[in-house]
């Protein structure tokens, strides 16, 4: 960076013209600072992991704040190192986090039970009852499913629930004092009426009646956060909120915040896929596709969630509980081997070598089979997961085909959901992809194109992921006040000069992936048996 540019950037940061996005992902909390041109200026991160406590996946709330503080401190240090100034003022701020789950608080704002994350699949009875009563697919991880399961299980805390929210909504509330939620995140708590851009009023009444039949006197509308669309005023950073992020006291209060959003919504923004006939795939610990719909589906499908864009437009979501974690574990194993034989390779080099080898693997997986199921997978009807690899005796057991199979497995469950959308006649012009799995250029992107049978685009900006996406939504506050729609803002202000790499599906890959999927579907009972007997 030239000295002049560095000095200009330092000046705009000192003047409070930069915008901050914070996202609490499943394995990393990340902060991204962007300038008026929406390009990243600095970043910080903090690694964390969920824990299995009493058979439920959770994160300790203390870890939320220590992680955010460490992440913000890393960002401030990056600003100091790059530009020689302190980060004290911001033009706007946004918070995003993992969608869904169960954060139930009492009248004093204290957690009643440990945070139950999206990864938990113990809500089967609630899912069955609510989906039938609502005539809408209610997935296992939705907040309303967690609440109703707690009612069915007669958990003591239910009578004391005064507030129900998501992780993003919780952090936003602590920073601003406002109990609000972006419509995209809210759509993972309870069904949304897309015309009203709010919770479905009729279904709220139906839920209250179902709860009352089971002895729980609840008014769900009073427990849920207020729903806001992108660009709406969502409160300002309080002095206490600023201290939560920056205990050193340098960060000034009174920063405007955009509505808090879920990682699905920020992923849509980060890939400019909020218009109809566009979609995006976000790959991390989980993997999911978001497809903006032109019209309603013919009927409910258990493979599809109906959620919304941050502007409130209807979206079909294919959410797979399991993503790249098993793939990362195999890379780690090969990295250990490299170290054991004194090869000086960093993890990134091992990723590149293994991903590159996969390009030469058999197009149909060569008789190998893999499942990435560390957790249960509702789309395939499994409430427990077991990562598996097995093969036929006459299979092509080579490094190239082995790793191609692992990459195919990462997209296997996603393909099942996308097949349902194809059967519904949903059309896509292009799918955008982001996440670490796409860092090695032309590999996972190529296999995803085969899996979804649609051109797949990857861009450098989307590599910053949801933290950048929520920063862009925070920057949208001023443009929304000027009357620009979210789509107009993204097209004209953010993505006008962004270069994308687009790969079309290759016929051999498409045929090969289809053949792999025939064996994949037939092999799902093997995972069920493994879970039952191990």
TrEMBL record:
This is Sugar (Pentulose or hexulose) kinase. SUPFAM superfamilies: Actin-like ATPase domain (SSF53067). Residues 19-244 form the Carbohydrate kinase FGGY N-terminal domain. Residues 280-476 form the Carbohydrate kinase FGGY C-terminal domain. Keywords: Carbohydrate metabolism, Kinase, Transferase, Xylose metabolism. Signal peptide: none annotated. One of its GO terms (molecular function) is kinase activity. InterPro entries: ATPase_NBD, FGGY_C, FGGY_Carb_Kinase, FGGY_N. It comes from Microlunatus kandeliicorticis. The keyword Transferase applies.
